[in-house]
Design a protein that fits this description.
By secondary structure, the protein is mostly beta strands. It is 0% helix and 48% strand. The chain is built from no helices and seven strands. The chain has strands spanning 6-11, 14-18, 28-32, 45-50, 55-57, 60-62, 65-70. The strands form two sheets. Strands 2-1-3-4-7 form a five-stranded antiparallel β-sheet, with no helix packed on it. It has a two-stranded antiparallel sheet with strand order 5-6. A hairpin with a 2-residue loop joins strand 1 and strand 2. The radius of gyration is 12 Å and the shape is globular. The N and C termini lie far apart (25 Å).
């Protein structure tokens, strides 16, 4: 089983699967673990707005976010 997370970006009123590195500042997105469970922050939020474009940090893609909703 792959440990790659699945990325969805909210585009034109629909969630569309995308590559994490394609996240751009202002995108609304959510992530899923390879097991299918939503990625959540410490407070249980699972939908985010990107404050930055995706970038590489310590060899891994990252993005700065603003939390927008709770699962």
């Amino acid at each position: 089983m792959s440990d790659i997370r699945r990325t969805e970006i909210f585009v034109d009123g629909k969630w569309k699967e995308s590559d994490f590195e394609k996240i751009r500042a202002g995108d609304v997105f959510r992530l899923y673990e390879s097991t299918g469970e939503p990625v959540e922050d410490k407070k249980g939020n699972s939908e985010f707005v990107a404050k930055t474009d995706a970038y590489i940090k310590d060899g891994t893609y990252a993005v700065d976010v603003v939390v927008i909703s709770r699962r």
